[in-house]
Amino acid sequence: MKILKTISDRLETRGGIFLISLAIAAIVWFGIRAITGYSARVTEIPVSIQPPPGWIVLDASARTVDISFLGTREDLRLLNRDLVKVSVDLRHHTDAAPCVHEFAAADVSAPGSPILDFAVPSKIVVRMDRQGTKQVPVRLETQNMLPAGYEQKAPVITPATVQLTGPESVLARIESVSTLPIDLDGRIRTFTRRAQRLVLPGDAAEHVRMDPPTATLEIPIVERSGTMRFDDVPVGLVCPPGQALQATVVPDVAAVTVKGPPELVDALSAGDVRLFVDATGVGGPVSQLRPIHADLPASLSLVQTDPPQARVQVTFGTLQPDE
Hints:
Elements: H1 2-11, H2 14-36, E1 38-50, E2 55-60, E3 64-71, H3 73-77, E4 85-89, E5 99-102, E6 108-109, E7 115-120, E8 123-139, E9 142-143, E10 150-152, E11 156-158, E12 161-167, H4 168-171, E13 177-179, E14 182-183, E15 191-195, E16 198-199, E17 209-211, E18 215-219, E19 221-223, E20 226-238, E21 243-250, E22 253-260, H5 262-266, E23 274-278, E24 287-295, E25 301-306, E26 309-319
Parallel strand pairs: 1-4, 8-13, 9-14, 20-23
Antiparallel strand pairs: 1-3, 2-8, 3-7, 4-6, 5-8, 8-12, 10-19, 11-18, 12-17, 13-16, 15-18, 20-22, 21-26, 22-25, 23-24, 24-26
C-alpha cells in the first residue's frame, strides 16, 4: 500500500502528469498507426502546372510523379492513377528564372483521406515565359526540278502571313513558317495547291500556336526564254513549184525579234535567221501585201517582224511546163 501511495503521490506532481500525457500520446499514436499504417504507391501521375496569367510553361524537369500514400485499407483501396491528381500552383512566380517547387500535400488530391508519405521525384524545376504574338510570312518549300526550259516565278500565297502565339523567347527566334515541300517534277504550267499544314522551325511547334494553320498556293510556271532583235535582215521571195516570177519585195529588209531558250538566243546571229514572203497565188503585173515569215532554228519562235508585211510587186509571171 505504501508503494502504491508513493506512486500516486508522484504522479500527481507536474513531472508525473507529463509522463502520463506522454504515455497516453504514445498509446494513441500506436493505435492510429495500427489503423493507418498501410501504404500504397501510385506511379506516373501526370503533373498539371498552373502558370501566372499571361505566362506559359516552357518545360518542366518532370511531367509525371510517383506518390506514396499512408492510410487505412479502405482509403488505399480507392487509389488509382485516374483518381489521383497532382496540380502545382505557380501563379505567384512571375519570373523567367527557373522555379524549384517541392511537392507537398497541398499539391495532391485523392479520394478518401490518405496521407502523402513522399513523392518521387520530390521536387520539380519549371521554366516559364510571358506569352506573346507575332506576324510572320509564309515561305514556299519545293522539291525536285522543273523540266529544262521552264522556271518558277514568285508564288502567290494566301494568306501571305500567319499569326503566332507562344512564349516570347521562342517567338523571337522565328522569322517565317514554311509549307511542306511541293513537288515540281514535270510541271510546265501554273498550278494551285492547298497547303494542308504549315511548318514551324525546330521544336517551336510544342509551344507555339499558328493561325491559320493552312494556306493556298498559286505557283506560276513559265517557259524560260530570252529575246533577240536583228535589224536589216533581207526579205526573200518564195514562189510555188513550177511558177517563175519577176518581182520585187518592198521593203527588201526588215527587223525581226525572236525568242527561245536563253542559251540558244545568246548564240544566235543574223545569218541564222531567214525572212521571206510567200508569193503563192500571185500572178501577173500586180502589187499585193503579204505577211513576212521567218525561218528559224529549232526551239526558237518568232515574236514579230517590223514591218509585219511587205509589198510584192510583180512585173511578169509565167507557169513553167512540167518536166
